[in-house]
Amino acid sequence: xxxxxxNMGSMPHRLQHVDFSLVDSLAVPASLHDxxxxxxxxxxxxxxxxxxxxxxxxxxxxxxxxxPEARENVEAQFxxxxxxxxxxxxxxxxxxxxxxxxxxxxxxxxxxxxxxIVGVLILAFDVRRPPSxxxxxxDPHLTPRQLEILDLLAAGMSxxxxxxxxxxxxxxxxxxxxxxxxxxxxxTRVEAIATAQRLGxxxxxxxxxxxxxxx
Length: 215
Fold this sequence. Notes:
disordered N terminus, 8 helices, alpha+beta, 20% strand, Beta-Lactamase, Arc Repressor Mutant, subunit A
């Protein structure tokens, strides 16, 4: 792997002819996809993280594992790798086979055969298991102010922008965000917004461009 590229040298154009031992040897969850996003191969770590076997996911689109509110952004990141050859590194969420919403830092790395992009390798870092299923607590105790801040968060506002909009100090906004994240059992803004969307708590469309978490 050099400068973010994952070069396969003389790899045949058809990905199903690739020796998958390199993917299998990776220490992090990894899956190989054709340029349309369909699963071609995944290692044991990816099976454990997703809760699905290779046989269950082979030929399916990776977007099936992404909740609707996050899918557009993830597919845009994939296209950057598959169409433009740009490696990507971003935070998102996915739904495992048990229906749990899980946070992850994902990398999409273009696979090249000479000058042609023939596939994308997806790596998953910091896969987070929820401490409990959010659906077991379907009514998080959020105050009107926390819901208001959550709506602005979903619209893509930063902490400082929310503070200006609501005439609050940035530290007050950060405190509200920490308490909101705790109620939603979320670790990042993307997780919080995705969970709030699934619970019908948002008045604003999600997801806007997301700045750094609780900063």
